[in-house]
Specification:
Structural class: alpha/beta
CATH architecture: 2-Layer Sandwich
Number of helices: 3
CATH class: Alpha Beta
Strand content: 25-35%
Protein name: Anti-anti-sigma regulatory factor
Number of strands: 6
Shape: globular
Radius of gyration: 13 Å
Length: 115
């Protein structure tokens, strides 16, 4: 996991194994600590090949944690990968999702906003 900090913004770039079962606890502990100083957190999941249910659930709890602290979370990933997890876990009942594309980029690159 690599993070970039800029004023109220924290961008977290995950590596391929940061969210697997063996690294999940340490990754989330770092994520919670680093998010304390920032009002907007962007998670870049583009290097994650598979997001299991435990990791997805942990991200839902992280989103709720930030929301309780009046902070925002956005996740960046391809529509197919993150959208599949979103649908599989029936997250429509927990959080809303929308996306937008940049006309200069491939349409597979989406920005997901979780409110």
């Amino acid at each position: 996991m690599k993070s970039v900090k800029l004023n109220d913004l924290l961008v977290v770039i995950f590596n391929g194994n940061d969210l697997n079962r063996s690294h999940l606890y340490n990754t989330l502990e770092s994520l919670y600590q680093e998010s304390e100083e920032h009002n907007l957190v962007i998670l870049d999941l583009s290097n994650i090949k598979h997001l299991n249910e435990e990791a997805a659930g942990s991200l839902v709890f992280f989103q709720r944690y930030l929301k309780d602290k009046k902070k925002s979370l956005r996740m960046y990933e391809t529509k197919e990968q993150l959208g599949a997890v979103y649908a599989k876990l029936d997250l429509e009942n927990v959080m809303s999702m929308a996306y937008r594309t940049n006309s200069d980029q491939n349409d597979d690159n989406m920005v997901f906003y979780f409110n």
